[in-house]
Amino acid sequence: MNPIQYVMSILEADTQADRVVPPTGHTVRLTLFSAAAMAFLAVFAMALSMATGRLAVRWGDELARSSTIRISAPAAQEAAQTEAALRVLSTTPGIKSARALTPEEEQALLEPWFGNGVLLSALPVPQLIEVIEEGDGYDVNGLRLRLQAEVPGATLDDHSQWRKPLIRAAYSLRRLGTLSLLLIGGTMAAIITLAATAALAANGQVIRVLRLVGATDSYIASAFVRRFTLRALIGGVIGTVIGMGAVFLLPGAQAEGGFLTGLGFQGWQWLWPLIIPPMGAVVAFFATRGAAMRTLRGLR
Amino acid sequence: MNPIQYVMSILEADTQADRVVPPTGHTVRLTLFSAAAMAFLAVFAMALSMATGRLAVRWGDELARSSTIRISAPAAQEAAQTEAALRVLSTTPGIKSARALTPEEEQALLEPWFGNGVLLSALPVPQLIEVIEEGDGYDVNGLRLRLQAEVPGATLDDHSQWRKPLIRAAYSLRRLGTLSLLLIGGTMAAIITLAATAALAANGQVIRVLRLVGATDSYIASAFVRRFTLRALIGGVIGTVIGMGAVFLLPGAQAEGGFLTGLGFQGWQWLWPLIIPPMGAVVAFFATRGAAMRTLRGLR
Amino acid sequence: MIELDNMAYSYGGGELLSGVSLQLQPGAFHFLTGPSGSGKTTFLRLCYGDLTATAGAVRLFGNDVRDLSRDDLAIMRRRIGVVHQDCQFLDHLPLYENIALPLTVSEQGGVEEAHLRELIQWVGLAKRARALPPELSGGERQRAALARAIIMSPDVILADEPTGNVDWEMSQRLLTLLIELNRLGKTVLIATHDLALIRAAKSQVQARVLRIANRKLQFAGADL
Amino acid sequence: MIELDNMAYSYGGGELLSGVSLQLQPGAFHFLTGPSGSGKTTFLRLCYGDLTATAGAVRLFGNDVRDLSRDDLAIMRRRIGVVHQDCQFLDHLPLYENIALPLTVSEQGGVEEAHLRELIQWVGLAKRARALPPELSGGERQRAALARAIIMSPDVILADEPTGNVDWEMSQRLLTLLIELNRLGKTVLIATHDLALIRAAKSQVQARVLRIANRKLQFAGADL
Ligand SMILES: Nc1ncnc2c1ncn2[C@@H]1O[C@H](COP(=O)(O)OP(=O)(O)OP(=O)(O)O)[C@@H](O)[C@H]1O
Ligand SMILES: Nc1ncnc2c1ncn2[C@@H]1O[C@H](COP(=O)(O)OP(=O)(O)OP(=O)(O)O)[C@@H](O)[C@H]1O
Ligand SMILES: [Mg+2]
Ligand SMILES: [Mg+2]
C-alpha cells in the first residue's frame, strides 16, 4: 500500500464507520477552519521565531564575542608590551584567540578618519590586539587588573559600551519570536478545543439517539473523536501548507546574507512547521474526547 | 447617566428584548472566546508592529541621515577648504545642516584608536564635517563631483556601506510587524465570522420557531445580531485588556531607551489597541447579519 | 379567510395534492382526516404560507401567498394560530414565555397577565408554567402548543393532531375550548386521526369533515 | 425480565411515582394508561434505565440498574426495544439506516438486508426508505420508530404512544405486528391514551391494562 492509498484508506474509513456523525455542517467546518487558520499563524510565528533566533545567534557571534586591546607605549617598548599582553591573554580563561593586528589591518580601520593617503608609520598609532571570546566570555574586570599590573600601556575596550544594546535587541527579538510562538500555539489549542466542544454540543441530539439505541460510550466517543481529529489534522495540513507557501513567497525570504535575512526558514528548518498539523490533531483528539465524555456523563 | 450605568443599560437591554435567543451555550461562549483570543493576539501584533515601527524610524533617522566629509589638506589650506566645502553643502538640495566638528569632538571619535592620552594637534588629523540629510536625501554622486571640482581635499563618506543593512533590517522588521498585524486581523475576522455563523446554525430551531409564530426577518436577525455583536464586543474588550496588561508587564516594555526598546506601546500608542474591540464587534455584526439572513432565506 | 383555488403541491417527486379547492369562511369548523402520509400536515402548511403551492393559488385574507413579501407573510401569520404536529418551542424559555411568544415577537406591547394565566389554567398547565419545554410530557407540550396558537386571538386556528398525546378527558376539554372560540367567530381547522373526537364535536357544533384521499380533498359523508 | 420493587421516582419536586411494584414476565402483554402528565413516559424511562429510581429497585434481566456500569447498560438496552414518544432520529441518515441503527452501533456485523426490507414494508414505509427523517410525516416517523425498536428482535418492547399519529387502519396493523412478536415470546408494554386500541387488542391477546393514578400503578378493571 503506497502512502497515498494509505491516506485515502483513512479518509474512506471515515465514511464507513462514522456515518453516525453528521458529515458536514458549520461545526465541522468551524473545526477545519480554525485548525487551518491557527496552523497558518503558527507557521508565521515559527518563521519569526527562527528568523529572530538566527539574528540573535549572528549578532551574538559576530559582535559580542570580540574585543580590542590597545597598546599605547613608546615605540621601543611597543613590541615587548604586545608580547606581554598576548601572554596574559593566552592564560586568561574564556578567550579563544588573541592576535595583534597587522599594520595593513590597522590602516584599513583608520581609513575612514584619515583617508587612504596617510602613512601609518608617520602616526603614533597604537598597536591593536583583537580578542575573540569563547564560552561565557572572560572576566572583564579581572583581565583589566592583570593588564594594568603587567602591561602598563594596555587599554581594554570590550566593545560592550555600544554593542550591548545590539545584543539586547537581538535577544529581545528572539524572546519576541518565542513569545508569539507560545501565544499563537496556546490560542490555537484553545480555539480548536472550543470549536470541537461547540461542534459536539451542537450534536447533543446525535449522542442522545446513539445512546438510546444501545451504543457504548467508547463507540460514540471514538466516532466523534475520529471525525474531529481528522478534521483538525486536515485543517492543520491545509493551513500549514498555505502558511509555508506564503513564507516561501515572502520578499526577502531568499537568503540575502544581509544583516537580517528576512522572515523565513533555512534548510532543515523547513521541517519544523510539519509538526503543527499533528499537534493540532492531538489537541483536537483530547478536546473532542473530553467534550464527548462530558456530554455522555450527563446521559444514562 | 454615568458611563457605567450606560454600559449596564446595554447589557440589560439584552436581557429584555433578546430573551428569544438562547443566552448561553457553547456557541455563544465560542464567539466570546474567539473574539477575546483574537483581540489578545491582535494587541501583541500591534505592539510588535509599533515596536518595529519605532525601531525603523530611529535607525532611519539616526543612521541613514548623516554622512561625513573629510578634508585632508595641508594645515594652511584646511580652514579655507572647510569653508569651501560648507559653502558647497549649503547650496546642495536635500541637506538639512552641515557643520565642522570641533577638535574635542574629533578627539572623542578617535579615542577608541589612540586612547585619550594623545594630543590631537600632534597628529595630521583631517577636519571632519558632519552632514545631516533631509527629505529624500541628496544626490551622492552629484555632490561628490562638485566637491572634487571645488574642494580637492574633500572625501565624502556617506556611511551607506555599513549602515544600509541596518536600515534594511529595520524596514524588514517593520514590514514583519505590519504583516503579522494584517494576518492576525484577517484571521480574527475569519474566526469571528465562522463562530457567529456556526452559533447561528446551531440556533436554526430557534429561528424556525420564531418565524412560525410570526416574527419578521428583521426582528429575528436583529435579536441575534445584538446578542452576538455584544458578545464579540465583550470578548474583544476582555482580550484587549488582558493583552494590554500582558504587554505592559512584559520585561523590557518599560522604556530603556536602548537600541530596541522592547515590545510595547509608548504614550498615546496605548490608545491604538482600543480600536480592536469595536472592530471585532463590527465583524461580528456583519457576520451574524449575513448568517441570519441566509438561514432565514431558507424558510418561508 | 383562507381560499384554495385548484391548488396542487408536490415535494419534488410525484404530486401529493392536486386540484384542491376550498374556502374557509369566518366561523367555519372543519376537521381534516386522511391516512398517515396522505398530506394533512402539508395541506396545513400550505394554508399558512409555510409552503407555496406548485400550481393553482392560495389566498390568505384575500392576498395571494405568492404576492406576499416575507414581512407581510410574518404579519399575516399573527392572524393564524397554528398547532404544529411536532410542537416546537424555545427550549431555554419557561413555558409561560413560550406561550406568550407570538405577542412578544409581534412587538404589540406586553401580554395581558390575566388572560395568559387563565389560558394556561384552562389547558391544565398552571403547575408547570415555569418548567422548560424539555421537562414537559408529550401531552403537556401539545396543550402548550394549542395555548400558544390561540394567545393572539387569531382569526383562523389550524391545529395539526392537537390531541394525539392527551387523554380522552383532556381532549374533550381542548375541543370545548376550540368550539367556544369558533362560536366567537374564529375559523377552526383540525387535522386528526381521532374519529371519536370528530363524533364528539359533531354533537356540539356544525362541523364539516374533509378527507384527503388519492391526492384529492373530499367532503366525508355522514358515515363518521 | 423487568422487575420493579417498591420503586419511587421524583424529578426533584414532589414524588411523581411511589410504591410501584411490577414484574414483567416473558410473553406478557401490557398496556399502560393514565392522564397526560401522570408519569407514563417517566415509568418507561425507568424501565430501560434512562432514569434511576429515587427509592426502591429496578432490575433489568436480574441486574439492579444502580449496579450496572454504563457499558453494561448500553448492552442491556440492545435487548430492550423502545419506541419514544418524541421519535428521535439521526437527521442526516436516510430512514433505512436509521431503522438499522441499533444493529450498526452494536457492531454485531451487518444488517440482514431481507429482514430490514420486510420490516420496512410491513410498517408501510417502503416508498420512503431513502427519505431523511425531517422529510417524513408524523405518522411515518412513529412507524419508523417502531421498526427501529424491533429490528434487533429484543426480548422486551416498550412503546410510548406508538399510534398517536397514525390512522386507525395503520394502528391495527402495528398492533398486529406487536401481537405477533408477543406470540414469539417477547414481552410488550404499550403506553397509550387510545382506549379503542386497547379494546381491539383485548379481543386478540391476553392483555393486562395498567393505570397510573395518584402516583400509584394499578391494574385497571374490566371496565375498558
Ligand atoms: N426532565 C423533567 N424535569 C422535570 N419534570 C419533568 C421532566 N420530565 C417530565 N416531567 C414532569 O413529570 C410529569 C410526568 O411526565 P411524563 O412525561 O412521564 O408524563 P406522561 O404520563 O408520559 O404524559 P403524556 O401522556 O402527556 O405523555 C409531567 O408533569 C412532566 O411535566
Ligand atoms: N420536506 C419533505 N420532503 C419530501 N417529502 C416530504 C416532506 N415532508 C413530507 N413529505 C412526504 O409527504 C407525504 C405527506 O406528508 P404529511 O406530513 O403532509 O402527511 P400527513 O398527512 O400529515 O401524515 P401524518 O398523519 O402521518 O402526520 C409523506 O409521505 C411525507 O413523507
Ligand atoms: Mg401530519
Ligand atoms: Mg408521555
Task: Give the integer mean of the pLDDT values of chain A.
Answer: 75
Number of domains of chain A: 2
Number of helices of chain C: 8
Structural class of chain A: alpha+beta
State the shape of chain C: globular
| CATH architecture assignment name of the domain at 2-88 and 153-219 in chain C | 3-Layer(aba) Sandwich
Placed side by side, the strands forming the largest sheet of chain C appear as 6-7-8-3-9-10
Percent range for β-strand residues of chain A: 5-15%
User: H/E series of chain C, N to C?
Assistant: EEEHEEHEHHHHEHEHEE
Classified by CATH, the class of the domain at 2-88 and 153-219 in chain C is Alpha Beta
Q: Would you give the CATH topology of the domain at 2-88 and 153-219 in chain C?
A: Rossmann fold
Determine the CATH superfamily of the domain at 2-88 and 153-219 in chain C. P-loop containing nucleotide triphosphate hydrolases
Helical proportion of chain C?
25-40%
Assembly state here?
A: heterotetramer
Largest beta sheet: strand ordering of chain A? 2-3-1-4
Which descriptor suits the 3D outline of chain A?
rod-shaped
Largest sheet of chain C: 6 strands, mixed
DSSP strand count of chain C: 10
Membrane topology (chains A, B): Multi-pass membrane protein
Transmembrane segments (chains A, B): 32-57, 176-200, 232-250, 270-292
Main location (chains A, B): membrane
Subcellular location (chains A, B): Cell membrane
